[in-house]
Each structure stands twice: as C-alpha cells, then as structure tokens.
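Assess this:
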Amino acid sequence: MNLPLSIAFAANPRTWPIMDGRAKADGIDLIANVVHPSELFWRQLKFADWDVAEMSFSSLMIAVEKGDNRFVGLPIFTTRRFFHAHILVRKDSGIETPADLKGRRVGVTEYQQTAALWTRGALEHEFGVSPRDIEFFMERTPSHSHGGATGFKAPPGVTVNQIPVEKSVGSMMLSGELEAAMHYRGQPTAVNRSSTDLRNHPDIRTLFPDTAAEGVRYYRKTGLYPINHGMCIRREIAEKNPWVIHNLMKAFERAGAIADTEREAQAEAHIEAGLLPESARVALREKVIRHGIVANRKVLETAAQYSLEQGLTTRLMRLEDVFAASTMGL
C-alpha cells in the first residue's frame, strides 16, 4: 500500500507533471494542491497544512534558526528569477539607476520573502545600495504574512513601515506615495492586496530598461541564478519514512525532464517559424535548472550569507541545518 501524502505547490511547467500524474513518486500517493505561493507559505508556516510543501528558502532559514523543527528542507527548487532586474519605478520619480534608490520610498510585499532578499543582495553587492539606504513600505500584515508566522521584526537600522490595510503597494505606486517597488505581483490572495497591473501602466516602468540583458550581465558576472522556492517535508514523516525523501526527489526530476522536453519542442517550433534565432537551439537545450545541493551550493550559500548580512538571521545558516542529511551529497 502506498503512503498517502498531501503536497502543495504553485503551478508552473516544472511542477505540473506532479499535479497531473505524469510524474509519480514511487510508493507514494500524492494528494496535490495548487496554491498561490504567498498564501501557501503563510499557511504552512502558521498551520502546517500539508505534509510536503513548496517553501520560501528565506522563510525556511528564518524558521529553522528560531527553533521551528516541524519541517526539513528538500533540495527541490521550483522557481528562480533575476529578481533585481524587475524592480519597478515611477517614471516621474527621477530614479534612473540603482544608486538613485537611496533615500527613496520603496514598496515590498513582504520584507523577508526570498525575492526581496535577492533584490537587496544584488543592490548592495552590485550597486552599493544598502537596505539602510532605503525606506521600505511592507504590504502584508502581521496576522497574514510569512513574517507574522516567524516573528519578523525589522532589522536594526532598517526602516520598514507597515502599509495601512486600506492601501497597497499598487495603490501607493499609482498615487506617488511610493517611488519604486520590489517583486511586485499584483495578484490578490489571502495575504496580498495589490491588484493593479503596474507593469503595463503608462506611469510605471522597470528600473532596468532591458530586464533580460541585466539578468544575463548578472549571471555572467556572478554565476548566480537566484533560487526562490524549494520544498519542505514534515520532519516526523521524513524521520519515520526516510525513503520518502529520495522518492520525492526522483519524482520532481521526472517532472523537470518532462518540462525540459516540452520547452525544447516549443523552442524548436519557434525556431522553425523564425521567431527565435538558430543560436537559441543550443542555449535552450542547456539544463540550467537542477535540483540537489551539489549543483546549487553556491546559490544557496549566497542566500544564507545575504540573510545574515541583512539581519534576517543572526548566524550564518549552514545548509546542513536546513536540508535533510541524506540529500547533502546529491
């Protein structure tokens, strides 16, 4: 008889094969739930709603350091992005370069979220803009946020204002009360209020005019492709059934292989149609998204270093503190 486990993740091409059953975990019956990550992380950190769940890497490090031992991390990495390249600014703000963010009012959905961690890290290490140089305005409330579930307090020397419940990052960007925003989503959920499409608004633009070019520049210089979300499992399940960890990892490897095959087929069709250059064929076949500790150690350790630097954790979190011991050599 298979072991039934509830699992929750956000829908994307690399997780959907788990949801639709094309990628199965041996010996496990997965009861899959697709949940927006902002709500998912709050519910898991607050209520432990699922046996296995996608999880913010930043929030997991914070929870573990604070003594929350309910979960253990799995090095299954579902989303990545060059987050700093997508900072939004008002066109009339006079913000033309990252250095211009100093002294400005900047909105963030949640200060401790991994996307904001990476954005602040890039601003500081690439452009000399410290979190202490910015006045932050946070949308999520203490009762409905990852930080509310982990006891978040603004780091020393950093100004983090709470946005009133009748406002949001989106509304304050349009009113001019905010001049810039980090990792803006514009999708209302159980914990998010912003709903305005700022990316297509005539008064708003990205700080970096060519977001793809900035991502390429950053990657070529640093070798970092920032990880946003991983997975976690209830510690009691992992300890009672240690085989589950590797079977879950194999299932997500299968899901990733399906996604890669579909991506390559789509790219091939676009090349044949003249929508992509021939040079894209080799680039798109390179496997840049991998699971496991070994392939991602530099990225994970950089995130841990940023967490310490930014005052989210008070000690440098070792990967051994966060992830299952049996995965450390994978």
Q: What stands out?
A: The first helix runs from residue 16 to 19. The chain has a mean pLDDT of 92.
